[in-house]
Design a protein that fits this description.
Elements (H helix, E strand, L loop, with lengths): L1 E8 L3 H12 L4 E4 L25 H12 L4 E3 L4 E6 L4 E5 L3 E9 L3 E3 L7 H4 L4 E2 L2 H4 L7 E5 L3 H12 L3 E5 L9 H10 L3 E2 L2 E8 L3 E8 L5 E5 L2 E4 L3 E3 L2 H5 L23 E3 L10 H23 L1
Helix pairs in contact: 1-2, 1-8, 5-6
């Protein structure tokens, strides 16, 4: 069993930033990431609101943070935690690759993209349905695609798809977008059509997606429309199950509850980033990761003395 001062769960912006901070303090720490470094932030077509960067893709931004983090801390990709147990003074973790013991835990496990929960959806994920325009957009160049959602992510994906040559429309369940004004202004300037007050109720096709059924919530009329691709941007669900196993409190939506120091209700267990809810922005995730790391270090230092 490997013994550490701190284990960080998740290699998104919060986890990587926490890794930089704990690593620079000389702590024996490791980041465990069940997927690839960067998490959902890799899929951001464009980051234009992080101080110091006029414009950068999410993937490039996270690559830079990861390169900096790996100067100070080990980072294990594709290593998923399968079991967790809290004793009086240690946190014991079992993964698909090994066993770990840590004095403190920083949970930066992020979120999972929410699905619509409609007929045919699961069948066509990866076969016409995507959550990432920067990953899959070029497959649909010159083709008709829908973006489902009304927030910042939906607007950003629609703009990116338009930019790479897709015939994109937004489908939104309400009569106005929730995206920031500058994004709405760009949507209007680019002439991207919006199908208002409508939801998708079914995905159809054979091997690949061929059409969707759109239900107008005002007229109660259903219409089947041919489309090559659908990009979903309808929110996220927190990856907090691991935390609840050891008794960490979550809110009614499943987001981990922390104080201003990113402490949970369990001693020496911290949380940061999107898994804590709130303002889910890169700059906030990085800030919370730093706060969690500093306080975890201070707590271990005091406890040692």
């Amino acid at each position: 069993m490997e013994e550490h001062d701190i284990i960080i769960v998740g290699a998104g912006p919060a986890g990587l930033t926490a890794g930089i901070y704990v690593g620079r303090e000389g702590l024996n720490a490791t980041i465990l990431e069940k997927g690839v470094t960067g998490g959902n932030a890799n899929m951001a077509p464009l980051v234009a609101n992080f101080p110091g960067f006029k414009s950068i893709t999410g993937a490039k931004f996270l690559k830079r943070i990861a390169e900096q983090a790996e100067m100070y801390i080990d980072l294990h990709e594709h290593e998923e935690i399968t079991k967790i147990h809290k004793t009086d003074d240690r946190i014991l973790l079992t993964t698909n690759k090994g066993e770990y013991s840590a004095k403190a835990l920083i949970i930066c496990s992020g979120t999972t993209y929410r699905k619509l929960g409609i007929k045919g959806e699961d069948e066509f994920i990866g076969k016409g349905i995507s959550f990432c325009s920067i990953c899959d957009g070029m497959f649909f160049k010159g083709k008709d695609v829908f973006v489902v959602g009304g927030g910042n992510s939906a607007a950003e994906h629609a703009l990116h798809l338009k930019d790479i040559g897709c015939n994109v429309k937004i489908v939104h369940r309400r009569d106005e977008l929730r995206a920031q004004k500058y994004l709405q202004d760009r949507i209007h300037a680019e002439g991207i059509p919006i199908i208002w007050n409508s939801v998708l109720t079914e995905m159809k096709g054979e091997t690949f997606l061929k059409s969707v059924v759109i239900h107008n919530r005002e007229t109660e009329v259903d219409e089947e429309v041919e489309v090559a691709g659908v990009f979903l941007a309808v929110g996220e669900e927190p990856n907090s199950k691991l935390a609840t196993v050891i008794g960490v409190d979550v809110d009614e939506l499943g987001y981990i509850i922390t104080d201003k120091n990113q402490r949970t209700n369990i001693p020496h267990v911290y949380a940061a980033g999107d898994v804590t809810g709130g303002v889910q922005q890169l700059v906030v995730a990085c800030g919370e990761g730093a706060v969690a790391a500093v306080n975890a270090y201070q707590s271990l230092k005091i406890h040692k003395n």
